[in-house]
Amino acid sequence: MKEWLQNRTECQNFETDCMEVRFPFSLEGKTILVTGASSGIGLSVCRAVVASGGSVIGVARREDCLKEMENELGAGNASYIKADLSLDADIEDITLRMPEVNGLVYAAGITRLAPLKFIKRHDLEEVMNVNYFSMVLLLAQVVRHKKIKRNANSSVVLISSVAQQVGTKSSLLYTGSKGAMSAGSRVIANELSSQKIRVNTIEPGMVQTAMASEMEDMLSKEVVEKDMKQYPLGYGIPEDVANAAVFLLSDASRWMTGQSITLDGGRYKLLD
Amino acid sequence: MDKNQFLQSFAEQFDETDPSAFTMNAKFKEMDEWSSMVALMIIAMVDENYNKKITGADLRETDTIEQLFERVAAK
Hints:
Chain A has helices at 2-21, 40-51, 63-73, 88-97, 121-144, 172-192, 210-218, 221-228, 238-249; strands at 31-35, 55-60, 78-82, 103-106, 154-159, 197-204, 260-263. By secondary structure, chain A is of the alpha/beta class.
């Protein structure tokens, strides 16, 4: 009983220290590695990290976009590593060049629409490579090289998709890859919990990004407009996802791991 | 591009519609079985068979199989 009381007091003191020292949603003093940083959700995460007081290292293939991101956010707050995550050599390069970070956001991703009977091994490999294999391989190297701070409330945020909770026609390539990501995140969360490294996913519905525009081009404006009407709060914007990522990266979520936040404007839980 | 081959491949994306309904003058979007799923299969079929990309807009802006054939041939 006495020991329990002592532990409880220590915890309360810790909580009080956390709350008093700084706003728990702040990322002040934290450095975050963000993949897919050249556009869409990844770029929004970079902006949100800096707006929340942190500094960011963006990873993407397109150096011009990365430079633009660095210029916009300021060289003191943002830097970048140009890399192609589908190449093992580039993953190794990221791991060697990056400093020890407090968090990592995996926002790199691609999508392809294809009905089941048209799916080929090449399509599967292309989507799985970027959306799942590279995520696993990057985290494996980052952990192996101890580039994410241990016992310091570090946080890994994986941008999955609400697609993996449902069964949208023609989305098998994408849905399968995000399902693997979400399922894998719980295993990784468990393995890293002893180092107090938290791992959570965000599962957004349709977010207005270049990737969504590609879908609109392939389908039709009418199909997209019909789909948008299914969202009580409308389609999301990248900032909606970035704000949730800031929460998961911050100390405000220090007791949360192996979980998923669904952000879909009410699409799948609110019924007429 | 062979018209008959295109017509056959187009028809193969449908499961319920009577094969006799597929002529080059058939208005495909008026077929009972036409759906967003069939549209995706037509897009995928054109990609696979002809290595050409068509979009929802191409389907929206054409009415008959002949018109779609001409549009794919022109790409």
